[in-house]
């Protein structure tokens, strides 16, 4: 335990001296937020409807980054962290309908200022916890005065129902950090995740009946 804590302190100290390392990630978040706000406005103007219900950006907390470096045994160099940890910058996009999740994925694939590096589809294959979301690992272009950077980021796209489940489950689990929550609570969360899928599927059917976009 002491050894683990010492390692965590070493990682924390190293990261404290890496101030400039995190700036491109913040730039990438500005870029992505602006990109998605622009297409949101375009879609609303052209079609009266946008697949984006809302959007949030976040920088990974130092605590979460330290834990990931420790768990994945990443070397304490900026190059290794950049290559192996792709979610330092994160965007979450929430949609009303499941189809919109995949429509946004197709849009992202087509953009010339974003490179899609990987896809984790936890909607098709939910996590054992019941978690559902589409995760895209991307690089986005950041144009500086004298150079162009490609900065990694993770985009999580999910419906409002999936988002409600994930944020509530996160709050319920918070108290149990590092320990497992009771089995009956786990089972109930899985059932609630299935209930959120039911709602998403029914909403999609209604959309098919009532709306034409
Ligand atoms: P943070 O810093 O709090 O956002 P990898 O990146 O592939 O090496 P990782 O990070 O385990 O490994 O990837 P994964 O599982 O694909 O994505 C992790 C993120 O997905 C989490 O961020 C959550 O945002 C979300 N997530 C994954 N599983 C669950 C779950 O069971 N419940 C909830 N509520 N969210 C989940 P972190 O790790 O919390 O980092």
For this entry, give a set of tags.
binds ligand 0O2; single chain; 54% helix; Beta Polymerase, domain 2; alpha+beta; 7 helices; 5-stranded mixed beta sheet
Report on the structure:
The protein has 213 residues and is an alpha+beta fold. It has one domain: 2-Layer Sandwich (Beta Polymerase, domain 2), CATH 3.30.460.10. Helix 1 packs across helix 3 and helix 6 runs antiparallel to helix 7 (183-210). The chain has helices spanning 2-16, 23-47, 62-72, 78-84, 98-110, 160-174, 183-210, and strands spanning 54-59, 89-95, 114-121, 134-143, 148-159. The radius of gyration is 19 Å and the shape is flat. It has a 5-stranded mixed beta sheet with strand order 1-2-5-4-3. It is built from 7 helices and 5 strands; from the N terminus they run ααβααβαβββαα. The model has no long low-confidence stretch (mean pLDDT 93). The termini are far apart. The chain is 54% helix and 20% strand. Strand 4 (134-143) and strand 5 (148-159) form a beta hairpin.
Summarize it:
By secondary structure, this protein is an alpha+beta fold. The protein has seven helices and five strands. It starts with a helix and ends with a helix.
Q: Tell me the radius of gyration.
A: 19 Å
Number of structural domains: 1
Give, in order, the helices and strands: HHEHHEHEEEHH
What is the CATH-assigned architecture? 2-Layer Sandwich
User: Widest sheet: strand order?
Assistant: 1-2-5-4-3
For the residues shown, what is the average pLDDT? Answer: 93
CATH superfamily: Beta Polymerase, domain 2
């Amino acid at each position: 335990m002491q050894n683990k804590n010492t390692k965590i302190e070493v990682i924390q100290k190293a990261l404290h001296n890496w101030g400039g390392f995190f700036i491109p990630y913040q730039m990438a978040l500005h870029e992505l937020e602006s990109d998605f706000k622009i297409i949101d406005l375009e879609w609303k103007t052209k079609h009266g409807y946008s697949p984006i219900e809302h959007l949030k950006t976040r920088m990974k907390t130092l605590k979460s980054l330290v834990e990931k470096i420790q768990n994945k045994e990443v070397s304490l160099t900026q190059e290794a962290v950049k290559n192996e940890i792709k979610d330092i910058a994160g965007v979450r996009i929430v949609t009303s309908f499941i189809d919109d999740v995949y429509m946004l994925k197709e849009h992202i694939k087509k953009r010339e200022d974003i490179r899609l590096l990987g896809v984790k589809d936890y909607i098709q294959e939910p996590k054992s916890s019941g978690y559902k979301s589409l995760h895209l690992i991307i690089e986005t272009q950041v144009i500086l005065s004298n150079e162009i950077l490609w900065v990694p980021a993770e985009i999580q796209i999910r419906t409002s129902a999936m988002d409600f489940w994930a944020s509530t489950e996160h709050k319920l689990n918070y108290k149990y950090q590092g320990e497992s929550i009771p089995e009956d609570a786990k089972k109930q969360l899985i059932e609630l995740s299935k209930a959120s899928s039911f709602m998403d599927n029914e909403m999609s059917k209604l959309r098919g009946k009532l709306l034409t976009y």
